[in-house]
Fold:
Amino acid sequence: MFGNETICAVATGMGRSAIGIIRVSGPEAISICDSIFEGKKKISEMESFTAAFGTIVDRSESKASSEGEAAIDEAIVLVMKAPHTYTTEDTVEIDVHGGPFVIKKVLELLVKLGARIAEPGEFTKRAFLGGRIDMTEAEAVMDVISAETDRALSTSISQLTGMLRGEILGLRERILYQTAYIESALDDPENYSLDGFSEKLMVEVTDIRARIDKLLSTAEEGRVIREGISTAIVGRPNVGKSSMLNRLLGEERAIVTEVEGTTRDTLEEYIDIGGILLKLIDTAGIHTTEDIVERIGVDKARQSIESADLVLMLLDGADELTEEDRTICSFMNSKRVIVLINKVDKLESGADGDTAGLTNIDEDELSKHLTEAGTTDWKIIHVSAKTGQGIDELKELIRDMFFKNELDYNDQIYITRERHKALLLSAADSLQRVEQSISDGAPEDFMTIDLMAAYETLGEIIGETLEDDLADKIFSEFCMGK
Ligand code: GDP
Structure:
């Protein structure tokens, strides 16, 4: 179906693990695996979706002539026959003991016998090409694999179950109906009238566009769910950045991802706060408190702020605003900022623990500097990295700043990818042109051009752009040429 190539890859990690799974898919999957498997039955004689125990052996000439068959490892093979498999092709899964050496050996044998090492995502690509999943679902598979919070996982799973596809299919269906109606009316004016049609079309198109706009309005949240909120923790030395970071890391599950070719600078750190992922920018220096030179102060603040979605700016509540604080404020531009007035545990507080107005920070002056820097979305909270005071408030604030639809993320469709966003924007543009044509009183066949453009663009989201759809629609709904 996708050429004659049979592909193979390790489905589990390459490290040491209890078992390692190698997947083989393609027209030769069964015959190739038969050549390296020694069991009671041949794989080709096994029923689909059954497993068998046996040994992986190297029967290549050099081995066979000198030492007879060389056993590599015990294995369980699972055979799944086309077309009811993930890739829609014949697929064999080989479970061996999980050492990297054994796995490598089995892969080498498979390649020697004509399989090719799969490219990243190729199994899923075949599932897509085989029509088993659509493009949004294929993308969701990738997201499920890389999800790092519950929220990211549930979003990609809802996409995987076809929620986005369902929505897109519905919108396309409506557009196609209108186009087919126009075509039919132009072809067969006796039976299909266009009188009063443009008013109806306007209502329909406006409504479709509103649905698209609603999807687009989730794109910012969708991106944040998928990628996390890029967060910069800034402040002059000794205000408590490192302590705050440790407080946040200590309270929550810390996730540290080593990026390939890693040095300390490319270490990506994430904090999961109640399902929201903060992707910390440039905190490598903050950690090493003994290493004064590397501690992030004013110099690095500007850089980190530039690439941030959210800035956590720390101040020392026992001090007054300093020149350095003012300088950091001036870097904020239009960023979302949460000012953390830290060390409030050092202050005398009222009986209710309220520290407002008791710090030495002139909050009016602070506001003035932030406003002058161009910030419009900012909040001030009183915290203590030492006691944890204010941390819950901080989390709530972040949630409010970034999530409008916070409670229904299980049922809500989120646009999580730039690709989808760009295509939706383009479809909305085409529909807007249809509305314009209607207002201008343009002829109907003119409108079909933009309607079909919107239809095709939406199709790209789910990986479908079939011109035949229109003909099918016309035949099935309007029985043309009967
Ligand atoms: P950084 O240079 O901004 O990373 O600051 P550090 O986190 O290293 O903190 C500087 C000093 O302030 C350390 O001695 C911390 O123990 C202390 N500190 C940080 N946060 C608090 C706080 O909330 N309360 C009190 N009392 N001390 C704090």
Summary: The two ends are 35 Å apart (CA to CA).
